[in-house]
Amino acid sequence: MHTRPAGRWSLLKRDLYLSRHYYVLMAPFMLIFFMFTVIPVGISLGLSFFHFNMLELPRFIGWQNYSRLFLGDDVFLIALKNTLLFAVITGPVSYIACFLFAWIINELSPKIRAVMTLVFYAPSISGNVFFIWLIIFSGDSYGYMNGFLMRLGVILEPIQWLADERYVLAIVIIVQLWLSLGTSFLAFIAGLQTIDRSLVEAGTVDGIKNRWQELWYITLPSMRPQLMFGAVMQITASFAVAEISIALAGFPSVNYAAHTVVTHLMDFGTIRFEMGYASAIATVLFALMLGTNVLTQKMLRKIGE
Amino acid sequence: MTSKVRAVFGMPKRLNRSFTVSLMLFALLAVFGSFMVLPLIYAVNNAFKPLDELFIFPPRFWVNNPTTENFADLINLMGNSWVPLSRYIANTLLITILGTAGHILLASAAAYPLAKYRFPGSKVLFTIVILSLMFSPHVTAIPNYMVMSWLGWINSHASIIVPSLAFSLGLFLMKQFMEQIPDALLEAAKIDGANEYRIFWSIVMPNVKPAWLTLMILQFPALWGTDGGSFIYSENLKTLHYALSQIVQGGIARAGVGAAVALLLMIVPITLFIISQSSVMQTMATSGMKE
């Protein structure tokens, strides 16, 4: 009897055979996941190099969609500017707010903690209640904001909050912030609760003087996994603003003041049926999100150093 | 004295923190807490306002003479419509229950091997799942439509239910949670002769019940609030959310009914969260990306 040297392929074949049950367990999820997430992303990347209007066959046009996007589409540049503004303002602000409020709430007694968690989390799961903000910022004197400011004597005439390009973006940002304390906020609260108290005591012995040092050297590094997770969720949400903008500012918004990359994508994808062009917009959005995520994760690794 | 106040606010005594700072933090929490919760309280109040109070000037925050008229009107209105209200409710329940239960099952089944074993492709698959967390569903909206129409699923509930079964956030959280199940437990089961499916079903699944609730609380509001998107056109198949948003678009005459609708839509996910809060926290504590 002689033993055959196990080649790379036969090793792999053995591994595959031994793991066959794992593949069976994963198959249903992965099948659907690839069908409706991975493959569509692939199709979208591919389509962005085509001219495609759902009626004729796709026609390859190379980089034309992209050059048109950046050089010939003024509205896209407005959308890009607004989206980056959202990403720069709502992203970090909501991320820091999630952490800050989680940090404060964590020190309350369990009962009050549960109530406060609900208070901060409820808006993000309350469905379409953001229409309440339509009443608050309503353009006539029935609107709460107008009524309030007129009573104070700050303004004499009601302001058309949602039809004035000077205000509309700011209002969408405020409502977006209101809605943004979601999954990552929960993750932060839970992360704070798992921090080992003995670590804090050991830190005091090692010369940690105040609460800021405790935060930087012990609390934040201990919950790095939750911070990473939260960053991904917040970045994705802040780049994908669309529904709120449409609900509050209309579609399209006045002079495109609250237009975002996603509303631009909807415009070309579901109204004009320029699928190739819309796919190019989607690809740019994907690249933006991925880039920001990689950058943020690099920054988060530096915590506590 | 100060310790007494701390006790009232439920703040444990901490080193290096003065009473003033505690009070300031509490004030901060109160201000932003009201910013978060006042619109919701307003929505609740609105639902119980009689019509004359809804249009009072200057507008009032609290309801003076609460009435359930708005809910009665809603039921009347829906009763007279072409498709009965029960049909919309049944559609939404079907989508929500199948979508949530199926997601928990499929995500758990896929998470178990990824959490506990290494095998060819496991790392690549998990990386793809993580990457997919990083883009919004809008990126895939157009190709998704094409895939749906190719499958012939346009205008069927499958177009909403099936994609929601493979939601990558669910797989991710479930995997992180399952990593905490002790290996010894699985090995003991293996020695007793259980196969992988058996281990998954009778050992792993019962052990991750808190994570089920987390997936439920993430999935449920999304499906409960779905309007069918661009996939469902037939009135018989529309969801409750769609039907209700049609009513709200009725304008001023329907303002009272609209307020009742808003309350109905928000109260369900919030109640669900209150019930499952502690379990959700337990799962979230283990979430996060392993480096």
From TrEMBL, chain B:
Give the superkingdom in one word.
Bacteria
- What are the transmembrane regions? 21-44, 88-112, 124-147, 153-173, 211-232, 252-275
An example Gene Ontology CC term for this record: plasma membrane
Q: Does the keyword Ribosomal protein apply?
A: no
In the record, biological process GO terms are: transmembrane transport
Q: How does it sit in the membrane?
A: Multi-pass membrane protein
What InterPro entries does the record point to?
Answer: MetI-like, MetI-like_sf
Q: Which UniProt keywords apply?
A: Cell membrane, Membrane, Transmembrane, Transmembrane helix, Transport
Quote the CDD domains the UniProt record gives: TM_PBP2
Presence of keyword Ribosomal protein: no
UniProt-annotated location(s): Cell membrane
Domain (ABC transmembrane type-1) ranges = 89-276
Q: Which family does it belong to?
A: Belongs to the binding-protein-dependent transport system permease family.
- Spell out the protein name for this chain: Binding-protein-dependent transport system inner membrane protein
Q: Which organism is it from?
A: Paenibacillus illinoisensis
